[in-house]
Amino acid sequence: MKSIAPTAPRSAEGLRFESVTATRGGRTLLHGIDFEVRPGEIVGLAGRNGVGKTTLLQLANGLLAPAAGRVLLGETPVRSLGRRAVARRIALVPQDLHVPFPFRAGELVLMGRAPHQPLVGLDSDADVVRARTALARLGIEDLADRSVETLSGGERQLVLFARALVQDPEHLLLDEPTAFLDLKHRLEVLGEVRRFVSAGGGALVVSHDLTLAARTCDRLVLLGEGEVVAVGRPEDVLTPANLARAFAIDAQIVSGPDGRLIVLPMLGPGEPARD
């Protein structure tokens, strides 16, 4: 993969959740959520299925309004910003995206420049270069002229990530960004996220891979049933007690050869698997 300098703004402001409550269909999904994604850090968001991780990303992007509390970008409520203003500052990478028209991958990536363009206008040569550069950074420039309908799940995921990069946001919101990727591309995407935050941006990353999150995130937010179980450094959050509370499992936390954490879920009631 080509190494090209990231473009995250160094003037990024923090993305903050203050006593946020979210409801859907009359059900409270999240209650009293408090944490911040600061410029220069990757924050991992972990928890079992259905506890509200994707809902938190939608709140962060202004797609949903909190039932109570505030989501702030700096001191500005995200919901008070227009959609184009939000898109200039926050980029959401969903697990997948329904594309109703057979756009080429390069065209889909180029759409990431739309928030920075006049309401009526054509893509500039500079925008096209930015889109091609983002594809090259991820080693997928050969996909540029292929219809997104012909791409694998992993290829689509890389294209959506490239689209987010060309938005030049202050914050990246990533919903399971490595779920469909092979090991090589997982490392490359996470490397790009690290370069992005090193340039001054912030990233909130949903992940079910706790070992990978422990190795790549500066802090973790562990969600239980609608509330935060723990926030802090991976070694402080990923404890057997916290994992039992969040996932209702027994787990061992060990150090790998490089000293970083490895999470080992127990396959039975407190007993490891046997040959």
Instruction: Tell me the CATH architecture.
Output: 3-Layer(aba) Sandwich
- Overall mean confidence score, pLDDT: 89
Number of strands: 12
Largest sheet: 6 strands, mixed
Q: Which CATH first-tier class would you pick?
A: Alpha Beta
The amount of beta strand, in percent, is 15-25%
Give the radius of gyration.
Answer: 19 Å
Q: Assign a percent range to the helix content.
A: 25-40%
Report the span from N to C terminus: 40 Å
Strand order of the largest sheet: 6-7-8-3-9-10
- The helix-and-strand class reads alpha/beta
Mind sketching the topology for me?
Elements lengths: L14 E10 L2 E11 L4 E5 L6 H8 L7 E6 L2 E2 L5 H7 E4 L11 H6 L14 H13 L15 H14 L4 E5 L7 H16 L3 E5 L3 H7 L2 E5 L4 E5 L1 H4 L2 H8 L3 E5 L5 E5 L10
Parallel strand pairs: 3-8, 3-9, 6-7, 7-8
Antiparallel strand pairs: 1-2, 1-4, 4-5, 9-10, 11-12
Question: Could you please describe the fold and organization of this structure?
Answer:
With 275 residues, this protein is an alpha/beta fold. It has helices spanning 53-60, 83-89, 105-110, 125-137, 153-166, 183-198, 210-216, 234-237, 240-247; strands at residues 15-24, 27-37, 42-46, 68-73, 76-77, 90-93, 171-175, 202-206, 219-223, 228-232, 251-255, 261-265. Strand 7 (171-175), helix 6 (183-198) and strand 8 (202-206) form a beta-alpha-beta unit.
